[in-house]
Amino acid sequence: MNVNHADIVISAVQPEQYPKTNLPEIALAGRSNVGKSSFINTLVNRKNLARTSGKPGKTQTLNFYIIEDSLHFVDVPGYGYAKVSKTERAKWGKMIETYLTEREQLRAVVSLVDMRHAPSTEDIQMYEFLKYYNIPVIVVATKCDKIPRGKWNKHESMIKKKLNFDPSDDFIIFSSETKEGKDKAWKAIESYMD
Question: Which of 1, 53, 125, 174 is the most core-located residue (most Cβ within 10 A)?
Answer without folding.
Answer: 174
